[in-house]
Amino acid sequence: MKTAENRAHTPALSVAMSVYDGERFLAPAIESVLAQSFADFEFLILDDGSGDATPAIIRDFAGRDSRIRPIIRENRGLVASLNELLATASAPLVARMDADDICKPERFARQIAFLESHPDHGVVGSWSEDIDENGGAYSTGGRDHPLDHAAFLDNMRHGGPLLCHPSVMYRRDLVLAAGGYHAAFRHCEDLDLWLRLASLTKLANIPERLIRYRHYMQQVSKRHATEQQIGAAIAYEAFRARDAGRTDPTEHLERLPPIDQLDALFGEAGVSRRVRAAVTRGILHSPVALRDEGFDILLRHIRDGGSHGGMWRTAARLIKLGEPARAARLAAALATSRPAQAPPVPPASRWTANPAG
Asked: How much is the average pLDDT of 318-341?
């Protein structure tokens, strides 16, 4: 039961979790937050219009721990939910958490100590321990996230991982000053935010595996691989524009335009081609993307003289996926086109659809 004294206290930390149909993994995720060694937090859990048992699970935990502040409402999407959580948070620090991951007990304590001792840093994440849907070890083959701000900037300019979103703790005022999460970058809203924050504050990761990050077929990064790769490639083009001192034309967009319109949007020839190349590299191993509009982007890339690297293996992969007609179309495009001199590869071509990677 919440008392007047509980309500009057401003916690040191707000934990922000948005959930949509998350009943499968939700309980252990919540339990890992409640078991933190650092206990002075409010726990905002927003149910984004779930149709499963998620609201009941949230209410049950809220009845047992007064730190939990449930928000149960209709579906509005993840970006709207994250911005609502930011607006609702009462603490100066916000820790992100997803409903399918697990925090290690010392996560909050380690990150708060880091931010207290590094006032020039606005964001701190951590390395992750990758697990499968059953909690077993999961190998990504990727490298660990950068540790200091210089390494972040190098990865932004030359390719590489940045932050694992559910491992992040940040200063609320800084994220609000940056405009929060941008609706146009749905499914890669975190990447776009880190790229924007890099010009306002320093970013870092703690070299400890403070979160267990879960991989499974139903997660957003696998279900929306093509849209995520398109958004990531455009986010990097916006970063390149800002990095060069130019205006970011995506800043006030509610929705990203079609790839064919990107040259006009950025006022620069070649942006559309670079984005297609980046998306193509990002979807070669995604069964979902090879079956949706990602395949058409790949074909356009080939027909426009894009690199053929890995494409014959992709044709073989399509046959294994039960897509012989698409495999034949790809083989025909490869046989009748010749790759042109490759344009400079932007960082987006090295960004994967795995938020942890």
From this structure: 91
Residue-wise pLDDT for 158-169, tens only, equals 878 899 999 999
> Helix, strand or coil for residue 100?
coil
pTM of the model: 0.88
Cβ 203 vs Cβ 151: under 8 Å? no
C-alpha–C-alpha distance, residues 263 and 261, integer Å:
6
Say how far apart CA 344 and CA 254 lie, in whole Å.
29
Q: Which residues have CB under 8 Å from 270's CB, separation 6+?
A: 263, 343
Based on its alpha-carbon atoms, the radius of gyration of the chain, rounded to whole angstroms, reads 21
Structural domains in the chain plus CATH codes:
9-222 (3.90.550.10), 224-345 (no CATH)
Local structure of residue 344 (DSSP, 8 states): P
Supply 178's token pair: 């940056």
Distance from C-alpha of 250 to C-alpha of 320, rounded to nearest angstrom: 38
